[in-house]
Amino acid sequence: MYPEHSPQPDPALRHRRGAARLTVLRDGEPLADADLTVEQTGHDFGFGCIGFDFVPLHGGELDPDGDEAARLTALAEQWLDVFNWSTLPFYWAQFEPERGRPRTEQLRRTAEWFRSRGVTLKGHPLVWHTLTAPWLLDLATDEIERLQRERIRRDVGDFRGLIGMWDAINEVVIMPVFTAEANGITRLARRLGRVGTIRLAFEEARASNPSATLLLNDFDMSSAYDTLIEAVLEAGIQVDAIGLQSHMHQGWWGEEKTLRVLDKFSRYGLPLHFTEMTLVSGDLMPAHVVDLNDHVVDTWPSTPDGEARQAEELEAHLRLLWQHPSVASATYWGISDVGAWLGAPAGLIRADGTPKPAYDALRRLVKGEWWTAPTTLRTDAAGRVEVEGWRGTHRLTAGGASASFSLTAPTADLILSLD
């Protein structure tokens, strides 16, 4: 069951493969000696991208017949053709700019649009010192803590059933010492400490949705994050996955660093989510810049050479993540150059709506090399057939009837009844 244009899977990728012994039934009886078609319909791996672009479109902010709605509608088709996970924005300053008036319905409509198309959703973030509500500054620290706890419970509860995964807290390594802007959350983190603030985020989110997948997320890949994770786990806080940011505006990490990061953080036995990936397709940000936000330019164009480099490096980076059994997802931080973070040409789609080589490279992997092509198989006299392919959802079709199943284990015994 392999695409004709793709090589046989590397034996080292067995962790990405699944197999099943299917018994196919029709009207309660085995479908014996029959031809059928099996095709992949979705990935188990999270190929993600932020969905921020589409909040104005589906949240009701735009004229549905206007040019911007048309641009975003076309962009959405490109998005859905390669991605199956989406991160939605819950930055407190934007989500609740006026105290007591959260933009719940706008985000809910966007979340429902994604979910109706089979996309797995994550909310980002529940606690962060940047883009936090400015009205917290006038409050006492005790009141900030109370409101932060209430905010977590409210938003996780309001989106339960739509969003089951959250960056519970973001960039805690720097949180208590952050001085770039005044904010109430840094003040709270100084009082509670890093571990105490993390405990607050995880326990409140867990109380509102016990089945939620909760991430600890950071950009700091140094021993400081490593030490923090150890302290959090030793404190008995249940972390479901480790979030690793990789904004590579100053150039690709390269194989050596990527493998070093994977080795360091996989030792905890938790799934690794590469939560924020970017690679620019223009001039690289100077290496001396410490805080990426400090690099401000009038224009930052995409270039042919930069686009070729971006495509090559994105593929190389994804292959390393795909090969590592601890990595569960990889989320790109923005499909389009329009509105891209820091104005960087880091999108996979140009401002004019045309795909860059990096988009094409990603699609070749997601829907080509790492996609099980439709294959014709035949059941035996007992209606049985063996199937192998990339882990994810698949559909079996015979005589106009079909049934869906998932490949998620080395070998599983499944019974399928055709509709």
Automatic annotation (TrEMBL):
EC number(s) from the headed UniProt entry: 3.2.1.8
Catalysed transformations (reactions): Endohydrolysis of (1->4)-beta-D-xylosidic linkages in xylans
Organism: Tessaracoccus lubricantis
Claim: DNA-binding is one of the keywords in the record: no
Family annotation (Pfam families): Glyco_hydro_10
Protein name, as recorded: Beta-xylanase
Record domain GH10: where: 69-365
Family assignment from sequence similarity: Belongs to the glycosyl hydrolase 10 (cellulase F) family.
Signal peptide bounds: none
UniProtKB keywords: Carbohydrate metabolism, Glycosidase, Hydrolase, Polysaccharide degradation, Signal, Xylan degradation
Listed Gene3D superfamilies: Glycosidases (3.20.20.80)
Record's keyword annotation contains Signal: yes
PANTHER family the record matches: BETA-XYLANASE, GLYCOSYL HYDROLASE
SUPFAM superfamilies noted in UniProt: (Trans)glycosidases (SSF51445)
